[in-house]
Amino acid sequence: MNHFLAISDYSSEEIQSFLDLAVDLKKEYFERGNQPLLTGKVLAMIFQKPSLRTRVSFDMAMRHVGGDALYLSPNEIGLGKREAIGDISRVMSGYVQIMMARVFDHQHVVELAQYASVPVINGLSEYNHPCQGMADALTIQEKFGKAKGLNVAFVGDGNNVAVSLMIVCAKLGWNFTIASPEGYELSPEAFAAARDISEETGVRLAFLRDPHEAVHAADVIYTDTWTSMGQEEETARREKVFPPYQVNAGLVSEANKDVIVMHCLPAHRNHELTDEVADGPHSVIFSQAHNRLHAQKAILVRLLGAG
Q1: Do residue 143 and residue 268 come from a single domain?
Q2: Residue 44's domain spans which residues?
Q3: Cα-flanking dihedrals φ and ψ of residue 170, to 5°?
């Protein structure tokens, strides 16, 4: 059974094949409209954490390829609370052809996949965000092609988005640098996974404190919210720590002249990212958000054997 739980589960060639399919599906949609690739297939969308982009992009992805989607809210399913995850997984496997889960605890989506007899997609966990990573890679390739050796800089919290970005960079041959304040670094588990991949692909990984050093010669600057969902009690402390990591016009000017600025959204404007940059000529944050739809179509189609 093929699942999509982490980008690291796939080879570089497989990741590129997903992206190539996403390009084809995106082109077909704009030229010919929806395609009946998954007619009769239903995606169950299981949410512990709410999300605008994840819900709408997966729902519309299934519509684009002729399928349907079923939304299950946190209160409806109580994943890991009202009922054992293994039982939920085996029941749902008899109702739908594929599942997506957006969870707090990464182990919950792993366990869902363990007992499922249909493919399971990780829509986000506290460890990683592989669907976002695929959309990010698609966006970068749309700008720069499949060139190796790009310099990608992440500025801010070493969170789940940073993990998947680092892994996809290592897979596709892009150098990855992250600048984070002390105590907010990437996890040792994520570092170990990326290090092993980078040794095969020859990319450079750098872990810094100084955001100015990180963006030097950067082709991509990426940032994310300083306080993620579930960390609200840390907001006051984080807002004291992270201001030096704001992506503003001054920081962007220190990168390459054709640099693109990325953010997975939702953005807290004029905190981690200024309005001037978010709405400026280097920003690709909205095309990046739209690419969630097309990258996820490729994942759905490939996992269900239709492409």
Answers
A1: yes
A2: 7-129+290-303
A3: -60, -40
Cα end-to-end span (Å), the chain: 16
Each residue's pLDDT tens digit, 163-184: 999 999 999 999 999 999 999 9
In which residue are the tokens 């239903």 written? 42
User: Do the bridges between strand 175-179 and strand 42-47 make them parallel or antiparallel, or are there none, so unpaired?
Assistant: unpaired
Look at residue 81 and give its three-state secondary structure.
Answer: coil
Q: Assess whether 31 and 57 both reside in one domain.
A: yes
* Rounded Cα–Cα distance for residues 124 and 102 (Å): 5
Instruction: Report which listed range, 35-39, 48-52, 76-80, is most confident.
Output: 35-39
Instruction: Say whether both 118 and 15 belong to one domain.
Output: yes
Question: Which two tokens mark 273?
Answer: 């990212």
User: What is the rounded CA–CA span in Å between residue 53 and residue 264?
Assistant: 9
Q: Specify the number of domains making up the chain.
A: 2
1 in a structural domain: no
* The pLDDT of residue 79: 81
Q: Could you tell me the CATH number of the domain that includes residue 179?
A: 3.40.50.1370
256 lies in the same domain as 140:
yes
| Structure confidence by residue, pLDDT tens digits, 244-287 | 999 999 999 999 999 999 999 999 999 999 999 999 999 999 99
Question: Which helix (H) or strand (E) element contains residue 262?
Answer: strand 260-263
269 and 295 part of one domain = no
Q: Which residues are catalytic?
A: 102, 129, 132, 224, 264, 292
What is the per-residue DSSP string for 167-207? HHHHHHT-EEEEE--TT-PPPHHHHHHHHHHHHHHT--EEE
What is the reported pLDDT for 233? 76
Say what the pTM is.
0.96
Can you tell me the distance from the alpha carbon of 23 to that of 254, in angstroms, rounded to the nearest whole number?
31
Q: Are residues 59 and 110 in the same domain?
A: yes
